[in-house]
Amino acid sequence: NAGVTQTPKFQVLKTGQSMTLQCAQDMNHEYMSWYRQDPGMGLRLIHYSVGAGITDQGEVPNGYNVSRSTTEDFPLRLLSAAPSQTSVYFCASSYLGQGAGYGYTFGSGTRLTVV
Amino acid sequence: DAKTTQPNSMESNEEEPVHLPCNHSTISGTDYIHWYRQLPSQGPEYVIHGLTSNVNNRMASLAIAEDRKSSTLILHRATLRDAAVYYCILRDKAAGNKLTFGGGTRVLVKP
Questions:
Q1: Which of B43, B46, B99 lies at the smallest CB-CB distance from A109?
Q2: Average pLDDT, stretch B75-90?
Q3: What is the pLDDT of residues A17-34, one digit of tens each?
Q4: How far apart are CA A5 and CA A109, in angstroms?
Q5: Distance (Å, rounded) from C-alpha B72 to C-alpha B82?
Q6: Residues B29-62, buried b or exposed e (16+ Cβ, 10 A)?
Q7: Interface of B with A in 52-71 (CB under 8 A)
Q8: Given this model, what pLDDT does residue A39 score?
């Protein structure tokens, strides 16, 4: 099925460990982004990309790295996990052809716990 | 980034219409008005978007004020499945097409 696929769905890390959250989309969307959602809160933008080879920071980029080597994939790397990074992470993608005139498609999320 | 203001929560009875207001007084000419909803334990789901004219789709209608400083999402007949947090967001081409989420409106639907 077409859409945004996030893996893993659940992950527990120890403080200081690193890991990569995977995001893939098969809709040929130029725009991809990562959000985090803390309990009872709205979504905050971490990083985004408008195409392969181009990335930029969002509101809360510290502690996270991204790269965009292909149109389809946009992995999010946690360099050294901290308890403050316990959250649900959502990946989203969209067309850019008409600027802001397209809706986002979101993945189902990765629930990360750092102990 | 242009910001939006929404009520924290609203209640509705099942099968009645729901009108969700959103104020965006600092909207710019290139901002599209987007609405998303988030069901419990799920990722956000696109509902509708518009620029200047009112829009309808199978999920909802979007009414945009003539000066574009406010909009209203209309759910024509609320069902229990419509209970969710609804986010009104401005997507700005000039700001990298980002979506910046606010607090949203929590909609409760009573049977």
A1: B43
A2: 94
A3: 999 999 999 999 999 999
A4: 9
A5: 16
A6: eebbbbbbbbeeeebbbbbbbbbeeebeeeebbb
A7: none
A8: 86
Distance from CA of A6 to the nearest CA of B (A): 11
Pick from A4, A6, A10, A43 the residue to mutate for testing the B interface (most B CBs within 10 Å). Answer: A43
Confidence of residue B41 (pLDDT cuts 50, 70, 90): confident
- Could you count the other beta carbons within 10 Å of the beta carbon of residue B25? 12
CB contact under 8 A, A103 and B34: yes
- Chain length of chain A: 115
Residue B83's alpha-carbon distances to A15, A41, A80, B45, B107, in angstroms, are: 36, 17, 37, 13, 5
Distance CA B73, CA B86 (A): 9
Residue A97 pLDDT greater than 80, yes or no? no
Contact A82, A114 (CB under 8 A): yes
Residue B62, min C-alpha distance to chain A (Å)? 14
Name which of B89, B100, B34 is nearest A35 in CA terms. Answer: B100
CA atoms of B98 and A9, how far apart (whole Å): 24
Strand-pairing partners, residue B36, are B46, B87
* Residue of chain B whose Cα is closest to the Cα of A109: B43
- The A residues from 42 to 81 touching B (CB cutoff 8 Å) are 42-45, 48, 50, 56, 58-59
- Asked if B3 and B26 touch (Cβ cutoff 8 Å), the reply is yes
Distance from the B49 Cα atom to the nearest Cα atom in chain A, whole angstroms: 7
